[in-house]
Amino acid sequence: TNSRSKEYFTSQFQDEGFRGIEIKDGILINQRRYALELVLKCGLAESKPTSTPLEQNHKLTSVEYYRQFDITDDDELEDMRIYQSLIGRLLYLAMTRPYISFAVQQLSQFMHALKRSHYNATIHVVRYIKRQPGLGLLMSSKKSGELVPFVMLTGLH
Protein backbone atom coordinates (compact mmCIF):
# COMPACT_ATOMS: atom_id res chain seq x y z
CA THR A 1 0.00 0.00 0.00
CA ASN A 2 0.93 3.64 -0.41
CA SER A 3 1.35 4.40 3.31
CA ARG A 4 3.54 1.32 3.81
CA SER A 5 5.86 2.30 0.94
CA LYS A 6 5.94 5.87 2.27
CA GLU A 7 7.02 4.58 5.69
CA TYR A 8 9.65 2.34 4.08
CA PHE A 9 11.18 5.13 2.00
CA THR A 10 11.09 7.57 4.91
CA SER A 11 12.90 5.05 7.13
CA GLN A 12 15.44 4.34 4.37
CA PHE A 13 16.21 8.05 3.96
CA GLN A 14 16.63 8.44 7.71
CA ASP A 15 18.80 5.30 7.98
CA GLU A 16 21.05 6.36 5.11
CA GLY A 17 21.71 9.78 6.61
CA PHE A 18 19.48 11.93 4.41
CA ARG A 19 18.52 13.88 7.50
CA GLY A 20 15.60 16.22 7.09
CA ILE A 21 14.26 14.85 3.83
CA GLU A 22 10.54 14.15 3.93
CA ILE A 23 8.51 12.12 1.47
CA LYS A 24 4.90 13.11 0.76
CA ASP A 25 2.43 13.16 -2.19
CA GLY A 26 4.62 11.28 -4.61
CA ILE A 27 8.13 12.10 -3.62
CA LEU A 28 8.61 15.51 -2.08
CA ILE A 29 12.18 16.06 -1.10
CA ASN A 30 11.87 18.78 1.46
CA GLN A 31 14.51 19.82 3.96
CA ARG A 32 12.36 22.24 5.96
CA ARG A 33 13.38 20.89 9.34
CA TYR A 34 17.07 20.86 8.38
CA ALA A 35 16.83 24.45 7.05
CA LEU A 36 15.16 25.66 10.25
CA GLU A 37 17.74 23.89 12.40
CA LEU A 38 20.48 25.64 10.40
CA VAL A 39 18.82 29.03 10.96
CA LEU A 40 18.60 28.33 14.70
CA LYS A 41 22.17 26.99 14.90
CA CYS A 42 23.44 30.22 13.29
CA GLY A 43 21.51 32.28 15.85
CA LEU A 44 19.31 33.85 13.18
CA ALA A 45 15.87 33.02 14.56
CA GLU A 46 15.09 36.69 15.23
CA SER A 47 16.86 38.08 12.16
CA LYS A 48 15.11 39.46 9.10
CA PRO A 49 15.14 37.17 6.02
CA THR A 50 16.87 38.42 2.87
CA SER A 51 15.35 38.46 -0.63
CA THR A 52 18.45 37.26 -2.53
CA PRO A 53 21.10 34.60 -1.79
CA LEU A 54 23.95 37.11 -2.17
CA GLU A 55 23.96 40.88 -1.96
CA GLN A 56 23.73 42.46 -5.38
CA ASN A 57 27.07 43.70 -6.78
CA HIS A 58 28.93 42.39 -3.71
CA LYS A 59 32.51 41.52 -4.63
CA LEU A 60 34.14 38.67 -2.76
CA THR A 61 37.92 38.82 -2.91
CA SER A 62 40.68 36.59 -1.65
CA VAL A 63 43.05 37.19 1.25
CA GLU A 64 45.88 37.36 -1.29
CA TYR A 65 44.16 40.26 -3.09
CA TYR A 66 43.93 42.18 0.20
CA ARG A 67 47.59 41.51 0.96
CA GLN A 68 48.74 42.52 -2.52
CA PHE A 69 46.99 45.90 -2.32
CA ASP A 70 47.60 46.37 1.42
CA ILE A 71 43.89 46.60 2.25
CA THR A 72 43.14 46.14 5.94
CA ASP A 73 39.40 46.76 6.33
CA ASP A 74 38.43 43.06 6.39
CA ASP A 75 39.70 40.76 9.15
CA GLU A 76 41.06 37.31 8.40
CA LEU A 77 39.39 34.60 10.46
CA GLU A 78 41.69 32.14 12.18
CA ASP A 79 39.23 29.32 12.91
CA MET A 80 37.92 28.03 9.59
CA ARG A 81 36.01 25.07 11.03
CA ILE A 82 32.76 26.98 11.61
CA TYR A 83 32.81 28.39 8.07
CA GLN A 84 33.69 25.01 6.53
CA SER A 85 30.88 23.33 8.47
CA LEU A 86 28.43 26.01 7.38
CA ILE A 87 29.45 25.64 3.71
CA GLY A 88 29.01 21.86 4.02
CA ARG A 89 25.50 22.32 5.39
CA LEU A 90 24.63 24.74 2.59
CA LEU A 91 25.96 22.29 -0.01
CA TYR A 92 23.65 19.66 1.49
CA LEU A 93 20.70 22.06 1.28
CA ALA A 94 21.56 22.86 -2.35
CA MET A 95 20.42 19.32 -3.26
CA THR A 96 16.82 20.46 -2.89
CA ARG A 97 17.44 24.17 -3.52
CA PRO A 98 19.38 24.49 -6.78
CA TYR A 99 18.86 28.28 -6.76
CA ILE A 100 21.44 28.65 -3.95
CA SER A 101 24.06 26.54 -5.74
CA PHE A 102 25.82 29.47 -7.40
CA ALA A 103 26.12 31.42 -4.15
CA VAL A 104 27.38 28.40 -2.20
CA GLN A 105 29.87 27.53 -4.95
CA GLN A 106 31.22 31.08 -4.90
CA LEU A 107 31.57 31.04 -1.12
CA SER A 108 33.18 27.59 -1.05
CA GLN A 109 36.18 28.98 -2.97
CA PHE A 110 37.34 30.78 0.17
CA MET A 111 37.29 27.85 2.59
CA HIS A 112 41.07 27.85 3.15
CA ALA A 113 41.73 31.59 3.24
CA LEU A 114 38.83 33.14 5.07
CA LYS A 115 37.85 36.73 5.78
CA ARG A 116 35.01 38.12 7.86
CA SER A 117 33.22 39.26 4.66
CA HIS A 118 33.09 35.64 3.44
CA TYR A 119 31.48 34.52 6.68
CA ASN A 120 29.00 37.42 6.57
CA ALA A 121 28.05 36.53 2.98
CA THR A 122 27.45 32.93 4.07
CA ILE A 123 25.18 34.12 6.88
CA HIS A 124 23.34 36.17 4.24
CA VAL A 125 22.59 32.90 2.35
CA VAL A 126 21.22 31.34 5.55
CA ARG A 127 18.97 34.38 6.06
CA TYR A 128 17.76 33.87 2.47
CA ILE A 129 16.90 30.24 3.26
CA LYS A 130 14.98 31.48 6.29
CA ARG A 131 12.62 33.32 3.91
CA GLN A 132 11.09 30.03 2.66
CA PRO A 133 12.47 27.06 4.60
CA GLY A 134 9.90 24.61 3.21
CA LEU A 135 10.84 24.76 -0.46
CA GLY A 136 11.85 21.50 -2.06
CA LEU A 137 11.58 19.26 -5.11
CA LEU A 138 8.35 17.39 -5.96
CA MET A 139 8.24 14.29 -8.12
CA SER A 140 4.48 13.92 -8.35
CA SER A 141 2.78 10.54 -8.26
CA LYS A 142 0.15 11.85 -10.69
CA LYS A 143 0.72 10.77 -14.27
CA SER A 144 0.74 13.72 -16.56
CA GLY A 145 2.16 14.51 -19.96
CA GLU A 146 2.62 18.11 -18.91
CA LEU A 147 5.93 19.76 -18.32
CA VAL A 148 5.53 22.26 -15.50
CA PRO A 149 8.27 24.90 -15.56
CA PHE A 150 9.45 26.58 -12.39
CA VAL A 151 10.85 30.07 -12.26
CA MET A 152 12.27 31.65 -9.12
CA LEU A 153 11.89 35.41 -9.26
CA THR A 154 13.84 37.32 -6.66
CA GLY A 155 13.55 40.92 -5.63
CA LEU A 156 9.78 41.01 -6.13
CA HIS A 157 7.48 41.62 -3.20
UniProtKB/TrEMBL annotation:
This is Reverse transcriptase Ty1/copia-type domain-containing protein. The lineage of its organism: Eukaryota, Viridiplantae, Streptophyta, Embryophyta, Tracheophyta.
